[in-house]
Amino acid sequence: MVEAGAAGQAGAVVPAMPPRRGASTSLRRGPFRRLSAGHLVTMAAGLLGATLTLAALRSADHRVEVAVAATDLRPGRAVTADSFRFTRVRMDDGVLDRMVRPEDVAALEGSVLRSFVDEGEPVSRGDLLAPTGGGGRALGLPRRGGAGRRRRAHRR
Q: Which of 45, 69, 70, 136 has most Cβ atoms within 10 angstroms of its Cβ?
């Protein structure tokens, strides 16, 4: 209770306001005191939506691994698993069926190159001759036309 001063009536008593329930006596509030349950639900929904979007985008990656030449591969040489490295590409199914895939490498061990393949170029099954089983040796000969002509012209 507070008594009125000289401007008020002498002896008059003015009641003081009681503090509100749960009111802080400090004027500063913590950074998370303004967050309601609605805020938290909205933030959780946003994080869930972003996570699901990223997962959907990653699963939509339609690239596949194909073999590319790890070094310059010359005709007549046998290939090993070290002859290839793999890269992810997007190709038409018709072209992809002719390419060397990671699961094909074991079966192609010892195959002989039929044509020159530059480092980093994709290797197709048509570039390889199957290994001979009877102790004979397969001989790869360069194809006529295209890259073979350019190389011969360059050597002259």
A: 69
Per-residue burial over 24-44, b = 16 or more CB atoms within 10 Å of its CB, e = otherwise: eeeeeeeeeeeeeeeeeeeee
Q: Give the span between the Cα atoms of 42 and 51, in whole angstroms.
A: 14
What's the token pair of residue 61? 């990656």
| Tokens (6 digits) for 122 | 């994709």
pLDDT per residue over 23-51, tens digit each?
555 556 666 677 788 888 999 999 999 99
| CATH number among 3.40.50.1820, 3.30.390.30, 3.30.70.20, 3.90.1210.10, domain 64-133 | 3.90.1210.10
Q: How much is the pTM? A: 0.48
Residue spans per domain, the chain: 64-133
